[in-house]
Amino acid sequence: MPRPIQAFIDQNALQNNLHAARRSTSARIMAVIKANGYGHGLLRVAEALAAADGFALLDIQDAIALREAGYRQTILLLEGFFTETDLERIAEYDLSCVIHSHWQISLLDAYPGRGTLDLWFKLNSGMQRLGFTPEESALAMEAVRRHKAVREITLMSHFPNADEAAGVSAQLAVLNDIAGKYRMARSWANSAALLRYPATHGDWVRPGIMLYGASPFAEITAQQLGLKPVMTLRSRIIAVQSLAAGDEVGYGAKFRADRPMRIGIVACGYADGYPRHAINGTPVLVEGRRTQLLGRVSMDMLSVDLTALPGAGAGSQVVLWGEGLPIDEIAAAAGTISYELLCALTGRVPCLT
Ligand SMILES: *Cc1c(COP(=O)(O)O)cnc(C)c1O
Questions:
Q1: Residue with CA at minimum distance from ligand 1 atom 13
Q2: I need a surface site. Which of 10, 250, 256, 273 has the fewest CB within 10 A?
Q3: What is the residue range of 318's domain?
Q4: Residues in contact with 103: Cβ distance below 8 Å, sequence separation at least 6, in sequence order
Q5: How many domains does the chain divide into?
Q6: Burial of 311 (0-12, 13-18, 19+ CB in 10 A)
Q7: 108 CB under 6 A from ligand 1?
Q8: At residue 20, does pLDDT exceed 80?
C-alpha cells in the first residue's frame, strides 16, 4: 500500500468558483494559474477553468504548453519577457505579455518586429514592485506604442491593499486618470478587488485565490463568499500512542499531557507541505470530526488528539485542510496565508481529481 497521503483536487469546485467570479462582474476573466495553478497542477486547473477568457502565469514554457494543449484564449505572462528570444516565442505562440520596466523597452527596441505583440503595460500605482510610475508612464507608453510589432496594449496595475482597510481608492483615482488618456482596455483587480470594489473591474479582472476556494480577506470566510475548497489534503492515522499525565510529544516537547490521553500519528509532515509553524491546537479532521494538532510537526508526520474520539485509530481518515476544514484556518494557525500553503504542497504528494 502506498503512503496514504493525497491531495484531492475538486474540478467541480473550480468551476463553481469561476461562476462565483462571473456573477460578481461583467468584465472578462483572466484566471490566474501561476505557481502550477496555486499548487493544484497547471493543466488540471486549466481544464476545469477552460471557460475563463484568459489565463495568467509566469513561465513561457507553461504558456506554450497551454497553447499546445489547445487553449485558444488570451494567455498572459505576468512578468513579461526576459530575453529577445522570449519575444519571438511570444509572437509565435500568440501569447500576451506584461511590459513593466525600461530594460524591457530596450529589448523591445532591439526586436526586429516579426509577428505581432499584445502587451499589458504595467503601471506601478503604489505596490512598488513592477511597473512604470504615473510620472514616467507617458514617455514609456510612447516608446512602447511606436514599435511596429505592437498590436494591442492593455493597461494593467495591481493593488497592494485591496484586502485591507486602506482599500483601493487612492490608486484607482490615479489609474483612471492615466487610463483616461488612452483608448485601451484596463485590468486592475485581483480577487479581493473583484469581490469588494466593482469600480475596479474595468475590462479584465484577474482572480487567483478565490478560484481555488480560499478567501482573500482575513475577516470573511470563503464559504461566506460562496466559494468551495478545491484542494483537500488528506491522509490517515498510521500509529496510536497512549500518554500518561506528564508525557511529552514530539521534537522539542512542545506539548505535554496534563492527563491520560490518546494521540494519533498522521502520515503528513512539512516535507508534504504542511506548515511546520502550525501551533498546538491547529484544527484537524479525523473521521470528519474536528480535533487538534499536538506538538511540533515533523518532516513526515504530525500528531493529533484522539482522546475524545475513541472510535478513531490506525487507518482513520484525516483531513488536513479542504472539504470541511477551511485552509484559511490552518494558514492563520501557522501565521501565514492560504496562498503559501497551497503553493507549498510538495511533489511527493499524489494529486487526484
Ligand atoms: C497573483 C496575481 C493576481 C491574483 O491575485 P489573487 O489575490 O490570488 O486574486 C492578480 N494579478 C497579479 C498581477 C498577480 O500577480
A1: 158
A2: 256
A3: 231-352
A4: none
A5: 2
A6: exposed
A7: no
A8: yes
